C-alpha cells in the first residue's frame, strides 16, 4: 500500500533512502506508543461521530494486536513505508478495509509522531528518575557504612584537608538529586498532549482535544497548534539536557573512582565483575566501564547540542529537519539510562581500604585545621596561617579520625547529614510513584475497556 502521501509518480530511489533515513529502524521503539495514541484518537473520532461503534471496536482490536506483535519483536517496518505511522495505517487498512482508512481523520503525521514521542519520553523520564533515585539510595547506603571513614580531601588534585568517605559519596547523591530537578522540568514540558495540532494549523473538524489528553494521561493539552510543531526538538533537547546533567555527575564520580583505585592510591577496590582484561597483559583489570561512562557523557552532551543545532534558524511550522532530532534523542536517552544502571552495579560492591586512606594523611593535611585551632585561642587567622606554614612537621601527631569528627555541623565531613538527602529522595520518590500510578491508570483504562467506551451511546 506504500506511503501515506503516495502520488502518481515514483520517488527517486536515492532521494527516498535519504529522506527516510533511519526511521524504519528507530520507529520500532515508537510503534506501541503510536498505537496507544491512535486508540485515544480513534475513541475521540467515535465520540464526535466520525467513527461508528463497529469501526471503532475493530480498529481498537487491531491496534491491540499490533502492540502485542510489537512486544514480541515481530514487527518490521519497510523502507517503502517510511515510518511506524504508515506501517500501522497500512496494516489497519489491510485488515479492515475502509475502516482502517478513517483513523487518520483530523491528524497529520506531524502531530502523530509528536504524540508518540511524548509517550516514549514520558515512559523514559519516569524510568530514568526511578533509576537515578535507586542510585542515590545506593550512594547514601554506602555513605552510611563509611560515614566517618577518613579520606584525604583534595583541591587541584593535591592534598588539602581532612575529609571522609561518607562526605565524598553523599556529595554525589545530593548532586544527583539536584540533577533530577532538570528531569522534573523536562517531564512537565513533555507532559502536554499535542494531538489536534495536525500539520501546525488545526483542522476544520470538531476535535475534542481535552478528551484525547485525558485518555492518554496528559494533564493538559498543548494549546497553540502552531507551537506544538515549533516545540518539537526543544522538548527533546530538554530531556537530553536532563540526561546530560546526570551524566556530568557520573563522569566525575567515574573519574574519582579510577584515580582512587589506582595502585598508587589504593583507597578503593573495584569489583571484579565490572573490570575487563587485556589481550596482551595477563595481570590487567581495566575500569573500562568507568572510562566509557566518561566518554559517553560527551556523547549525550553532544546529542543535546545536535538537536539544538538542527532547530536553530528554522521557520515556524513543520520542517522535515526535525526528523533529525529523533535519533539523538533516543540514543542519548538510552545511553544516560544505561550509565545510571551500570554505575549502580559498580557502587554496590566497592571495597574501601582504611589503611591506604589513613596513609594519605600526611602532616600538611592538618595545616588549616591547626591554624583554626590557633584562631580559637585568640590569634588572627593570618598570624595563625603563617605560624602553621613555618612548622608543618609539628603536625605529624594529629589524628585523622579526630580531625574528621571535629567538623560536626550538618553537611561537614564528620556529619554529612544523610537524613537531609534521604528526605529529599523520599519526597521525590513519592511524587514519582503517584505520577506513575496516575499514568498507568489512564493507559490501562484506555486499553483495558475499549469495547465498553460507547456502551451509553
Structure summarized in a few sentences:
The chain has 457 residues and is mainly alpha-helical. The protein has 18 helices and six strands.
What amount of the residues lies in strands?
A: under 5%
Instruction: Count the beta strands.
Output: 6
Unreliable stretches (pLDDT < 50, length at least 5) are: 449-457
The largest sheet is:
2 strands, antiparallel
Give the class from helix and strand content and strand pairing: mainly alpha
Mean pLDDT: 91
Number of domains: 3
Instruction: Please report the number of helical segments.
Output: 18
CATH topology of the largest domain: Fumarase C, Chain A, domain 2
Strand order of the largest sheet: 1-2
Compute the gyration radius: what is it? 28 Å
Just name the CATH architecture of the largest domain. Up-down Bundle
Q: How helix-rich are the residues, as a percent range?
A: 55-70%
SSE run: HHHHHHHEEHEHEHHEHHEHHHHH
Cα(first) to Cα(last) distance is 34 Å
CATH class category label of the largest domain: Mainly Alpha
CATH superfamily membership of the largest domain: Fumarase/aspartase (Central domain)
What does the overall shape look like? elongated
Q: How does the SSE layout of this entry go?
A:
Blueprint: H1 13-20, H2 23-26, H3 31-47, H4 53-71, H5 84-96, H6 98-101, H7 109-145, E1 150-155, E2 158-164, H8 165-190, E3 192-193, H9 209-216, E4 220-221, H10 225-230, H11 234-260, E5 268-269, H12 288-311, H13 326-348, E6 351-352, H14 354-359, H15 367-376, H16 381-389, H17 400-405, H18 418-448
Parallel strand pairs: 3-4
Antiparallel strand pairs: 1-2, 5-6
Helix pairs in contact: 3-4, 3-7, 3-9, 4-5, 7-8, 7-13, 7-18, 8-11, 8-18, 11-12, 11-13, 12-13, 15-16
